[in-house]
Amino acid sequence: MHSHGYLTLIWFIIHLSVVKSQAIKAIPADSLVESIGVNTHWLNGDVYTKNYTELKAKIGEAGIRYFRDGTFKATYIRANDLYESFGIRVNILVGRGATDWRPPLIPSNIDAELYEIKTQAINATVSLEAPNEYDASHGSDPNWIETIKNYSSALYIKAKADDILKHLPIIGPSLTSIQSYQTVGDWDQYIDYANIHLYQGNRYPGTNGWGDHGHGSITWYMNFYARYQSPSGKCIQATEGGYHNIISSYGLSEEAEGKYAGRMFCEFFRRGIYRTYWYEFVDEAQPGPEGAFGLLRNNVTEKPAFRSVKNLISILSDKGPDFELNSLNYVFDGSINDMRQILFQKRNGEFYLVFWLEVSSWDPQNSTDLYPPTQEIVLTLLNNHNITNSTLYAFNNNADVNTFLLPIIDNQVTLNATDKISIIKLSTRD
Hints:
Layout: H1 5-14, E1 22-25, E2 27-28, H2 29-34, E3 36-39, H3 46-50, H4 52-62, E4 66-70, H5 73-86, E5 89-93, E6 97-99, E7 102-105, H6 110-120, E8 125-129, H7 134-137, H8 144-160, E9 170-171, H9 178-184, E10 194-199, H10 218-229, E11 236-242, H11 254-270, E12 273-278, H12 304-316, E13 327-334, E14 339-345, E15 351-357, E16 362-363, E17 368-369, E18 375-381, E19 389-395, E20 401-406, E21 412-417, E22 422-427
Parallel strand pairs: 2-14, 3-4, 3-12, 4-5, 5-8, 8-9, 10-11, 11-12
Antiparallel strand pairs: 1-13, 6-7, 13-18, 14-15, 15-22, 16-17, 18-21, 19-20, 19-22
């Protein structure tokens, strides 16, 4: 389910914090699952190299279908194994310099990178991505702007001219500031997707931001970063995003991170971001925030964020061919402030209505967990008398899921909206 037509539906939903009384066309449930990826470091991460068997089992258990890594032999080996085992595919990040991955970038190295991808990992590759955050990692390269432009344009031109690679979409280069995106400028002709690294510190995913123009909000990233790179408005991939647990460095608790993880993927998707790659899969053995972004701890045990993503994928996964989507006529009433929702449907006809409160679960000033009160809401089904069963999947503070069968009385279901993901399944059968 990759059609950009669904993004039009997502755009429509963003303008509806609460659905009014009208028929809403559903989005394929599997399209949210397709939007979820994760960053890995199979070559240079100590925990990655020593614990591959355990990490392979965990990424398969999570149901994550995409990962992001660089043009290393270790990446190709892992990519092929994960593809053959689970169908997982890789977004390959290019960007070799004079001595492997050290700056400056050498555009002539692209030929070797593309040859390796073609001959060692083509079946497992889903996309190619221009170099990573070169504005912040160019070292002593005094002409970094010209370098990143030359490298990125050469990647696009060479890949699109190759019969084996031309079907792979090209994601633009990631940069770290508005000034860098402005300076590098319009890159529409050399990309299929704009690229942003959407980090929000220790704020909640739907934050209105802070500072000028809503700094740090999704709108800010989309209006400034993405549109400088693609003035025509091409679809966006966020090849990095997520949270860490070093509280003294704008991190948050594992509990709050678990609440935000599922909400982040849902909110980014709701806002029209095509795919988001969580940074990263497992905590690395290094000090500071860089070693604490994982869905898994360094000993490969689960954080709540891992369970949040795994459970979201498990409930909504629905692989298969395109199918005809239906509409659902419904309305929410009650305490609906700050509520967000997305209507999905599976191939068996069941509707899955995902809803949550887009509010803070963490106090950034006092570095403490917050527990916002639940809000009672009423879902009224209009002209949907064939729906006879409703099942609620409610994520708790530990990102585990509690399941309840709820009565439909006079075409209404009473629910509680919380700062965790909730999903109500509506069907005509048990």
